[in-house]
Amino acid sequence: MRSWPSPEIPTLPVDGPAVSIHDTATGGRVTTRPDGTARLYVCGITPYDATHMGHAATYVAFDLLNRAWRNAGHDVTYVQNVTDVDDPLLERATKVGVDWVELAERETELYRQDMAALRVLPPAHYIGAVESIPLVLDLIGRLDAAGAIYRVETDLYYSVNADPAFGAVSGADRDEMLRIFPERGGDPDRPGKRDPLDCVVWRGEREGEPSWPSPFGPGRPGWHIECTAMAMEFLGAAFDVQGGGSDLVFPHHEMSAGHAQVAAPGERFAQAYAHAGMVAYDGEKMSKSKGNLVFVSALRNSEVDPMAIRLVLLRHHYRSDWEWTDALLWDAVDTVATWRKALSLGAGAPAAPVLTEVLAALADDLDAPRAVAAVEGWVAATLGTDGLADTSDPDAAVTMLALLDAALGLSL
Ligand code: ZN
Question: Tell me, what's the pLDDT at 248?
Answer without folding.
Answer: 97
